[in-house]
Design a protein that fits this description.
521 residues, Rossmann fold, alpha/beta, 10 strands, five-stranded parallel beta sheet, homodimer
Chain lengths: 521, 521
C-alpha cells in the first residue's frame, strides 16, 4: 500500500490496486478478442475515436501504448506522442493547429500521449501561471473536446497516476534495470509533483464532462493499469457501437425569435458610389500604401486571415484581385472554397480551414469561408439545425484562437441588392469569358433571398466579435466596394503595426526572426 | 532592339518582340474565352496541369502570375511562389519533398514560380558548383518531370528572359515608379547574370524534352510576354484535351526474359531457426542495443525509413512490434499501408509515401510500402504493365533521394513457404483475436504463389541498389526472423553512426541541433 488515503481526486488512484498474473491473463484473453472485434466494427462506423493518455507516469504511458498496439489492430491506430517538441511550422500557427492537423478520420483511432493536457500543465509549471491563466487554457481544451464530441468523436481520456513515492522508486529502478526506457524529462514530474498536482486536479475537474470523462487509473501495478484502460476502451466502444450516434442535444431553451423585421443588412447604404477618376486615384494610392504596410508587417512576422463572403456576383473575385496585386505574391494565398475532399469530409467541418492556416509572415484570403456552415449549409439544409446553431460558437472560438496567436481575422460581407444582382447576371451572360460563372442554380438561389438575408443577419450579429468584427461593404458600386475593402485592410495592418507588432521585445517577432535566420543559413 | 543577335539558346528571346496595344487587346479577348473554357473542361479531365514560370525577369514572373489569375479561374489554380525560403520541416526532409507536397490533384492547375529550376541555379551560384554537380541536380529534375509526365501531368515550362541591359533598366525604373514591386533579391539575377547564363542554358537544354518542353519567352514587352505564355497554355491544353491521354510508350526493346527458373527467393535458407531460450537472450540483448543506438542516432539527427514486405502471415506485424518496443515511441511511426484516399488517388502513386516521410530525428516503419506497385498491383492487374515496369526506376530514384538526404532506407522481405503459410492461416482461424486477420481473399491469393514469386524476384533484383539493398529474411521460424531483422537494423544504425553520422562538423547535424534548440526556446 503506497500511501495513506488523502484528499484529492487522484486519491482514488493511490489505493494500491493490483492484479495477479493468472487473473490478468485470464481476463485479458477475452478482452483482446473483444477489443479487436469492436475496433473492426468501428472501422465502418461514422465516428472516430480519440484516446488520450497522460499522467505523471510517463514510462507507464509508453508501456501502455505498446500494450494497446499489441492488443488492437495497429493499422487503424494513429499514434502521436506529443510532449512539447513542436516544429517551426507548428509554433508559427495558433496553438491548437498542432492537434487539428492530427485529427483521425472517422473509422480510425487516434492515440495521443501527452498532448494538450501535458502542454497545459507543463506550460503552467514553466511560466508559473496562476489559476486564472490556467483557466484560460482549460477553456480552450474544454471547447476543443466539446466540439469533437458534438461532431460524434468518441473521446476517451486516461490519467495514469503514481503516488510520488512509487514514482520515485519506479524511475530509479527503471533507470537501473534498462536505462533506455527512461528519459531525463520523465523526472520532471517528480520535481514539480506537488505544484503540478494542484493544476492537474483543476484540469481534471474542469474537463471531466459526461461525454468526455476522465478515467483516473492507478499505475502502480502495470497489469491493473493496462487492464483498467483496455476495459474502459472496450466498454466505451461497445456502448457507442450499440447505441449508435448520440442523439442530438435538444435545446431546452428556445432560440430567440426576432420581434421586428429589421436586419443588419438594411443599414448598409447601397447608394454609396465613387467616380471613376476618384477611384483610379484612390486605388493607386491605397495599393501603394498597402504594399508598403504589408512589407513592413511581414518583416515583423505578421500573419492574417481574410474571409470574403457576399451575394453571388457581389464582386468578391474582383475585389480580391485588387488586394493581391498590392501584396507580395509569395506570402499570400487565395483559397477558393470548393467541395470538400473525402479526407475533409471524414473530419469536423472546421478541419479543412484549420489545415489552411498560414504561418507567421503569410496571409490566406478565403473566397467564401467557414461561414458556409451558417449560410448555404443552413439555408439549403446541408447541415442539421443543431449543427449550424452550434457553429456560431465554434466559429467564435476558432477565430479567437487565431487572434490570440496574433493573427488578425478580417471578415467582409459584400452587399448588393437583388436588382443589381440580376443586372450582373445578365451582363455575365453576354460576356463570353464570364459565362462560365453563371449557372441555373444562380437564378434559382435568387428565390431564397429572404432566407439568406436572415442567415446573413444571424451570422453577422452572432459572430461580430470585438476581436474579429464584420465589415459590411456596400457593393452595388464595385469601385466603392473595392476602395472600402482596401482601406479597411490598410487600417487593420496599421493597427497591428502600432499595437501588437510594435514592441521591440515582442517574443513572437523574435521567434519569427530567428526562424527566418535559420532558413537562410 | 535591345542587343545584337548572339550565340545561345536565349538569343531567341532577345529579338525585341513586342505587340501593339490594339492588337494585344484584340487577340487577348478571344484567348481569355478560350482559356477559361479549356480550364473549365480540364476540371473533369484525368490529368493535372503544372505551369512552371521562372526566369531572370522576376518582376515579370509576378506580373504574369497576376495576369493569369485574372484571365483564368483562380479557384482551380494553386499558386506556389518558391524562391528558396524553406521551412524547417522542408529542410529536414529530402529535397523534392517540398515539391511533392505541393503537387496539384488531377483536374487542377498548379502554378509554380521559381521552384526547382530557381533552386538549382541559385544553389549552384551560391555554392560555386561545377557542371558535374549541377548535372547531378539536373538529373533529379529530369527524373521528376518525366515521372509527372508519365503519370499524365501536363507540364508547361516558361523561361522569361530579359537581355541584361533591359533587365537593369527595368529594375531601376520599377524601383523608382512603384517601389513595392521590386525586391532586393530581384537584383541578384543581374549581378550573377553572365555566370548564371551558362547554367541556365545547360538546364534548359538538358530538361527540354518533347513532353515537357521549355517555352523561352522574351519579357521585354509585357504584352508580348503575357500573350506568348497565355497562348502556349491554351494551345497545350487544347491539344491535350482533344487528343486525350498520351498513348503509353510502347517499349521498343523487349523486357529481358528469364532463361532458367532460378529465383532469388530460392536462395533463402528456410530451415534457419532459433531455440526459444537463445531467442529470449538475443532478443533482450538486441533490444537493449537498439535502444541505445537509436537514442544516440536520434540525438545526431538520424532519420530513416523501413519497408516491410513479405507473404501474408509471414510475421511482419510481430516483427515490427519487437522493433518498436526498443525504439523511442515519440520518434517512430508505424504506417500500415491501406487503400489510398481520394486526395491520394488524385496524384502520382508515390505521393502518398512522400507525404509520410519523417523529419530529421524520426523514423517511419511501413507495413507494406510503395513496393505494392510491383507486387499486388502487378499481379492483380491494378497497375498497367507500363506503369509497374517503370516503377522500378521511379522507386530507385525515390530511394536515392532519401539516401542523399542522409535517410537510410531499410527494406525487408519476410520469406516463408506455402506450407508454413497454410499452417499459420489455420492457426489464425483458431485463435479468436487473430480471426479478423483472415479473409477468403487470403486463401485465393495462395493460388497465385508462382506469379508473386516472380514479382518478388523482379522487385528484389531490380531495386537491390547499393544504397538501399534488400534484406531477405528466412521467416519460417518467427524467432529467427525477428532476431535477423533486429540485428540488421542495429548494424545499419551503427554504420550510420560510424559513417555519415560521425563527423563533428556535419552540416546536417548542426542544422538539426539548431532546430531542436529553437523548439526548446
Amino acid at each position: 500500500m503506497p500511501t495513506a488515503y488523502r484528499a484529492g481526486l487522484l486519491a482514488e488512484a493511490e489505493l494500491g490496486h493490483s492484479i495477479e498474473k493468472d487473473e490478468y491473463e485470464k481476463r485479458l484473453d477475452g478482452l483482446r478478442v473483444e477489443l479487436l472485434n469492436l475496433q473492426y466494427d468501428s472501422r465502418s462506423a461514422d465516428f472516430s475515436t480519440m484516446i488520450l493518455v497522460v499522467g505523471d507516469d510517463r514510462p507507464g504511458c509508453i508501456d501502455l501504448l505498446h500494450a494497446l498496439h499489441e492488443w488492437m489492430d495497429a493499422r487503424y491506430i494513429e499514434t502521436h506522442v506529443l510532449y512539447g517538441q513542436w516544429s517551426e511550422e507548428e509554433i508559427e500557427r495558433p496553438v491548437f493547429w498542432r492537434y487539428w492537423r492530427r485529427l483521425p478520420p472517422r473509422g480510425r483511432t487516434g492515440l495521443f500521449l501527452g498532448a494538450w493536457p501535458f502542454q497545459l500543465i507543463d506550460g503552467a509549471l514553466d511560466k508559473k501561471l496562476g489559476t486564472l491563466e490556467l483557466d484560460a487554457g482549460i477553456d480552450h481544451v474544454e471547447h476543443f473536446e466539446r466540439l469533437l464530441v458534438q461532431d460524434g468523436t468518441l473521446v476517451l481520456k486516461f490519467w495514469l497516476h503514481l503516488p510520488p513515492a512509487v514514482l520515485k522508486k519506479r524511475l530509479k529502478k527503471a533507470k537501473k534495470k534498462s536505462e533506455w526506457r527512461v528519459e531525463e524529462s520523465d523526472w520532471r514530474g517528480l520535481d514539480d509533483y506537488e505544484e503540478g498536482l494542484q493544476m492537474v486536479e483543476r484540469l481534471l475537474r474542469r474537463t471531466n464532462t459526461p461525454n468526455s470523462p476522465w478515467t483516473i487509473v492507478e499505475s502502480t501495478d502495470h497489469r491493473y493499469r493496462n487492464l483498467a484502460v483496455a476495459q474502459q476502451i472496450s466498454h466505451a466502444l461497445r456502448l457507442r457501437l450499440e447505441s449508435g450516434a448520440p442523439a442530438p442535444e435538444a435545446p431546452t431553451v428556445a432560440a430567440p425569435e426576432p420581434i421586428d423585421e429589421q436586419l443588419v443588412l438594411d443599414r448598409v447604404d447601397l447608394g454609396a458610389s465613387l467616380e471613376p477618376k476618384h477611384y483610379d486615384q484612390q486605388l493607386d494610392s491605397l495599393q501603394g500604401r498597402l504594399a508598403e504596410l504589408s512589407r513592413k508587417a511581414i518583416d515583423r512576422g505578421f500573419s492574417c486571415v481574410m474571409a470574403f463572403e457576399g451575394w453571388d456576383a457581389a464582386g468578391k473575385g474582383g475585389t480580391i484581385r485588387r488586394l493581391t496585386r498590392a501584396l507580395p505574391a509569395q506570402n499570400v494565398r487565395v483559397m477558393r472554397v470548393a467541395a470538400p475532399t473525402d479526407e475533409e469530409k471524414a473530419r469536423h467541418y472546421l478541419w479543412r480551414f484549420w489545415r489552411q492556416l498560414p504561418r507567421d509572415g503569410n496571409a490566406v484570403i478565403f473566397d467564401r469561408s467557414w461561414y458556409g456552415r451558417v449560410l448555404v449549409e443552413r439555408v439549403e439544409g446541408f447541415a442539421k439545425e443543431e449543427e449550424w446553431r452550434r457553429a456560431y460558437e465554434e466559429i467564435n472560438e476558432f477565430e479567437s484562437q487565431l487572434c490570440e496567436h496574433g493573427m488578425p481575422v478580417l471578415k467582409f460581407w459584400l452587399h448588393i441588392d437583388p436588382d443589381e444582382q440580376l443586372r450582373r447576371f445578365e451582363a455575365r451572360a453576354k460576356t463570353p469569358y464570364k459565362k462560365y460563372k453563371l449557372t441555373e442554380e444562380d437564378f434559382r438561389n435568387r428565390e431564397k433571398w429572404p432566407d439568406y438575408s436572415q442567415a446573413v443577419h444571424d451570422m453577422v450579429t452572432r459572430t461580430n466579435t470585438s476581436y474579429a468584427p464584420w465589415k459590411l461593404i456596400a457593393a452595388n458600386d464595385k469601385r466603392h466596394a473595392r476602395i472600402e475593402v482596401l482601406r479597411t485592410v490598410c487600417e487593420r495592418i496599421e493597427a497591428w503595426l502600432d499595437g501588437p507588432g510594435s514592441g521591440k521585445s515582442r517574443k513572437k517577432r523574435k521567434k519569427h526572426k530567428k526562424g527566418r535566420k535559420r532558413q537562410q543559413d
